TrEMBL record:
The keyword Transcription does not apply. Residues 26-113, 130-213 form the PhoU domain. Pfam families: PhoU. The gene is phoU. InterPro entries: PhoU (IPR028366), PhoU-like_sf (IPR038078), PhoU_dom (IPR026022). It is found in: Cytoplasm. SUPFAM superfamilies: PhoU-like. Its main location: cytoplasm. It comes from Floridaenema evergladense BLCC-F167. This is Phosphate-specific transport system accessory protein PhoU. Plays a role in the regulation of phosphate uptake. Keywords: Cytoplasm, Phosphate transport, Transport. The keyword Cell inner membrane does not apply. Belongs to the PhoU family. Homodimer.
Length: 222
């Protein structure tokens, strides 16, 4: 009996089932990265040691999912002879989870920085940098909603939010680099430069995720 869109062959049913499972894993990885980012924010701006100490375990889960998703994508591409649209989706997933994995790495780095900052009094700029972190987290959330809904327009909108983070980075960098007559150690200044750089890169990766969602839906690269 010939197959039709209403009566797909068994191999196509199996392939689509694998795709659904893969989508769930990607979204689960995104949720873990969001959690890690939120905890790194707490550790840095609320001086929350418990939050900082909880991140390495989450990062291991993120890395495990990342490796599994990459393997699953490669297997589906090489073994299942997918159609062009499926290849586009799987290729975008492989790139997208790399962005998620990098955001998770930066979150772990921020937690480590926060531990190094604990012995020092909170820097005067720290409260202002909080807004930069909130913006980057909001961008990640936007990109993951776009992914869950496969909403190309929502994915493209993430890029528009990136200007806020870029301007904040340039502003804080100039202010930190221009500080004079610093008494005592300069480690807190250097660590804060790393903080704003990490936040700027996290926002860039969130932008990439949004762009990849738009590509999945439209087939066009922005």
């Amino acid at each position: 009996m010939n197959s039709s869109p209403f009566n797909p062959p068994p191999e196509r049913i199996s392939f689509e089932r694998s795709l659904r499972r893969l989508e769930r894993d990607v979204l689960r990885m995104g949720a873990l990265v969001e959690q890690s980012f939120r905890l790194s924010h707490q550790s840095l701006f609320n001086r929350d040691l418990a939050a900082a100490e909880s991140i390495p375990l989450i990062d291991k889960q993120i890395d495990q999912l990342y490796r599994q998703i990459e393997l699953d994508c490669a297997a589906l591409i090489t073994l299942q002879a997918p159609v062009a649209q499926d290849v586009r989706l799987l290729s975008a997933y492989m790139q997208l989870v790399r962005d998620l994995e990098r955001i998770g790495d930066y979150a772990k780095d921020l937690a480590e920085i926060s531990i190094k900052l604990f012995p020092y009094p909170p820097h005067a700029y720290l409260a202002e940098i909080t807004a930069m972190s909130h913006q980057a987290q909001a961008m990640l959330a936007m990109s993951l909603v776009a992914l869950a809904d496969l909403d190309a327009e929502a994915g493209r909108q993430v890029k528009q939010e990136d200007d806020v983070v870029d301007i904040a980075y340039e502003t804080f960098y100039q202010r930190l680099a221009g500080q004079r007559d610093i008494k005592g150690v300069i480690e807190p200044i250097l660590l804060l430069v790393l903080v704003i750089r990490h936040l700027e890169r996290m926002a860039d990766h969130a932008t990439n995720i949004g762009q990849r969602v738009a590509y999945i839906v439209t087939g066009h690269r922005s």
